[in-house]
User: What shape does this take?
Amino acid sequence: MSPGATVVVAVPDAGRQLPGQPRWALMSSLDGPVSLRPIDTGDLEIFFAHQLDPEATRMASFPSRGRTAFFAHWTAHILGNPAANNRTILLDQRVVGHIGAWTDATAGERLLCYWLGREFWGRGIASAATRLFLGMEVARPLVARVARHNAGSIRVLERVGFVRLGEESFAQTDGTSHQEHVYVLREWASGVGEPDEAQRGGV
Assistant: This one.
């Protein structure tokens, strides 16, 4: 995650809730329950490895960080930010990624971010985790920015109720820029994105 931008990475869909199962545990399309818990410092090594993946950084249009910069950023700006709301994403108790929200100091926007390890794309995990997180993160409006070519994450946002506002150019620290869609969620109902809508097939 980075101040001023929302990194949204994954190619999801088809999360489903089992009868009698609590709302905080959803079933992905393949492997078991998806749940969220507070981030433990031991999770950071996994998150660090996830963001080193070249395909993940291409999908996010966001460069990876070296070890020192990564851990400093997480310590100071994510775990050290009392206004941030961050969770580890678990698939059957295995750490597969993270999701969170924070307020951009410049724009004043409350921003959504998630990142999954590439081996977990395409299983419905991102959809399930996002629905769970939206029940915990009560701030509205909630803004998400996603690279124009990241079709999977665009589908996740639209299926949980985000509406596209427009498109902007985002400049990276290395001087490159990319086009990103800007989405907003103004309210959220728990039934949005349930599997009886046209989303069972996944990606």
Remarks:
- The chain has five helices and nine strands.
- Residues 11 and 121 are 5 Å apart (CA to CA).
- Residues 1-30, 193-203 have pLDDT under 50 and may be disordered.
- The longest strand covers residues 94-103.
